[in-house]
UniProtKB/TrEMBL annotation:
Gene Ontology molecular functions: oxidoreductase activity
Keywords on record: Flavoprotein, FMN, NADP, Oxidoreductase
Protein name per UniProt: NADPH-flavin oxidoreductase
Domain of life: Bacteria
Provenance organism: Bifidobacterium criceti
PANTHER family attached to this UniProt entry: NADPH-DEPENDENT OXIDOREDUCTASE, OXYGEN-INSENSITIVE NADPH NITROREDUCTASE
Family indicated by similarity: Belongs to the flavin oxidoreductase frp family.
Domain Nitroreductase: 14-172
Length: 258
């Protein structure tokens, strides 16, 4: 295996892990300003800046998020953010510039812009996460907040042309979990064309199964965990995710069929 180059940035990225227990210490104003500004410096498709973030400080809303996500630690996170894709602001700008935002010519509501705004929100969140971890903080990305999208929209009074993407909890770590193993590079990086040989996948996943099994055994040998392939198969038939699709996007004004 080729040796890796190292610097402070690379080491932060290589050592990222999800932190779900935080010390009861607030973040300084300087820390908050730094990680929020780092998020703003992420790439943005066509310079539309089509994402926004809600910093959740109200305890009742934090409790509600923890209930939606089914994860009590969300309510105690020192810093809690919800990232949303946001074409509302751009709609207002376009309307002020004379665009008929109720007509067919208005394309900020369509699938391409929705997808790109979602991408931009994720890029900004990742920049915030990396900045926070570089300062010695711990983070966990919260996809679980999408368990109840209508409630999330109501909770944060999200207007038309906005849509929740992900949450992130940040604080000083109160735990030090082991690094999860990553599958072999060859399973995810290809030269020139995608390797779709099923035998290649099966052969290499068998190796990864052993690494994942060892990881879970070291964490808690008394709690058996299915192998990676079994976990994946179980998730492939998990019908609960059907409630988290983009069906609610139409109620927010988006037309994802075009």
């Amino acid at each position: 295996m080729t040796a890796l180059l190292h610097n402070e940035t690379i080491d932060v990225l290589l050592n990222r892990r999800s932190i779900r227990a935080f010390r009861d210490e607030p973040l300084s104003e300087e820390t908050v300003a730094t990680i929020e500004t780092a998020a703003q410096h992420a790439a943005s498709s066509q310079y539309l800046n089509d994402w926004s973030v809600i910093r959740v400080t109200d305890q009742e809303r934090k409790d509600a998020l923890a209930e939606i996500g089914g994860q009590p630690y969300i309510a105690t996170a020192p810093a809690l953010y919800v990232f949303v894709l946001d074409e509302y602001r751009n709609m207002v700008i376009a309307r002020e510039q004379g665009v008929d935002v109720d007509g067919d010519a208005f394309t900020l509501k369509n699938s391409y812009r929705f997808s790109q705004a979602q991408n931009d929100a994720v890029l900004a969140l990742h920049a915030m996460e990396t900045a926070a971890e570089s300062l010695g903080l711990g983070c966990v990305i919260l996809g679980s907040i999408l368990n109840d999208i209508p409630r999330l929209i109501e909770l944060f009074e999200l207007p038309k042309y906005t849509y929740p993407v992900l949450g992130i909890a940040i604080g000083k770590p109160a735990q030090e979990p082991a690094l999860k193993p990553r599958m072999g590079r060859g399973l995810q990086f290809f030269d020139d064309v995608y390797n779709s040989d099923p035998a290649f996948v099966t052969r290499n996943i068998a190796v990864f199964n052993d690494e994942v099994h060892t990881y879970h055994d070291l964490r808690d040998p008394n709690t058996p965990v299915p192998t990676y392939d079994v976990q994946t198969a179980n998730k492939a038939t998990d019908t609960s995710v059907l409630e988290r699709g983009f069906d609610h996007a139409a109620a927010q004004g988006f037309d994802l069929d075009h």
